[in-house]
Specification:
Order of helices and strands: HEEEEEH
Shape: globular
Strand content: 25-35%
C-alpha cells in the first residue's frame, strides 16, 4: 500500500470514549481497531495495539509508536476494505453445547 493512499484514508479514522480508555479505529470499531489508549501511571501514555499487532506499548514519547501505528493502520485498511478476516483460534472438536472442553451435552 502506498503512503499516499494511507493519507487519503486518515479521514476514516474515528474514536469512541469509554470509561478508562479511548478506542481509535478505522471505519469499524472492532475490525478496524487501531489501538486502545489509556493514561498510564508509570509512563504518560499506554497504547494497546492488540496481541497480533504488537501488544501494549507504554511510553512518554508519542514518536515511539510511529512505525507500529503506520503498520497497524495499513493492516486495518486491508482488513476492512479487502474483507480480510482476523484469525481466530479454532475450537477444539470436543466442545459441545455446554461450551466446556471434554464435556458432553446430555439430552
Amino acid at each position: 500500500m502506498k503512503d499516499d493512499s494511507l493519507f487519503d484514508e486518515i479521514s476514516n479514522i474515528d474514536h469512541r470514549k469509554y470509561k478508562g480508555k479511548l478506542v481509535v479505529f478505522y471505519k469499524k470499531e472492532r475490525a478496524g481497531r487501531l489501538f486502545d489508549f489509556y493514561e498510564g501511571k508509570s509512563k504518560k501514555h499506554t497504547f494497546d495495539f492488540g496481541q497480533e499487532a504488537g501488544g501494549e506499548v507504554a511510553t512518554d514519547k508519542l514518536t515511539d509508536i510511529d512505525k507500529l501505528l503506520v503498520a497497524t493502520f495499513a493492516r486495518r485498511i486491508n482488513d476492512v476494505e479487502g474483507g480480510g478476516k482476523r484469525s481466530r483460534a479454532a475450537k477444539p472438536d470436543n466442545v459441545h453445547k455446554t461450551g466446556c472442553a471434554g464435556t458432553e451435552a446430555t439430552a
